[in-house]
Write a structure and sequence with these properties.
- This protein is of the alpha/beta class.
- The protein has two domains: 25 residues; 127 residues, Glutaredoxin, CATH 3.40.30.
- The protein is 36% helix and 24% strand.
- The protein contains four helices and eight strands.
- The chain is globular and about 55 Å long.
Length: 160
């Protein structure tokens, strides 16, 4: 197989892959209102967090991340500011151990809640395609945003 054939094969595979996944990403980019799944989140220390505890109190920003994700690392300062404001930020680590997550939180001075999703069940329940992704649960308990990364105008979701 020649280099030219290999490149052509790779490009074709990439284009087909993008065509097949684009509808999934597009559907999750905009606002999708819906009922929040009833999941129990677990911190690296073993504490249980129930999303229903925040209903009627604060909107919750769930951020799906991993330590290898450079975009996720760049979001940390913004997430700290958001957490100090009207939102409760809960960062959901995808597929990494409690030890690795604790170490990352410490090294990056993360001051908002971090939970584990070692088997991907939380990401599946919220229908997120990967990292970085975010879901905003309004104070009413309904999902008011689901998308890749953080929304630009996040404050517009605070009262929903």
């Amino acid at each position: 197989m020649t280099i030219c054939s290999i490149v052509r094969f790779a490009v074709t595979g990439f284009i087909l892959g993008m065509c097949m996944t684009a509808p999934v990403f597009a559907a999750q980019q905009g606002v999708e209102k819906g009922k929040c799944p009833e999941v129990v989140l677990k911190s690296p220390a073993g504490d249980m967090i129930h999303l229903t505890d925040f209903k009627g109190k604060h909107p919750v920003l769930l951020v799906f991340w991993a330590s290898w994700c450079t975009d996720c690392r760049e979001e940390i300062p913004r997430l700290s500011k958001i957490n100090a404001g009207r939102f409760k930020v809960i960062a959901v680590n995808e597929g990494e151990s409690a030890w690795k997550t604790k170490r990352y939180v410490s090294m990056n001075k993360i001051d908002y809640q971090v939970v584990l999703d070692s088997d991907g069940a939380v990401a599946k329940a919220f229908q997120v395609p990967g990292v970085p992704a975010s879901v905003i649960i309004g104070a009413s308990g309904s999902i008011v945003y689901r998308g890749i990364g953080l929304p630009e105008q996040i404050d517009s979701y605070a009262d929903k």
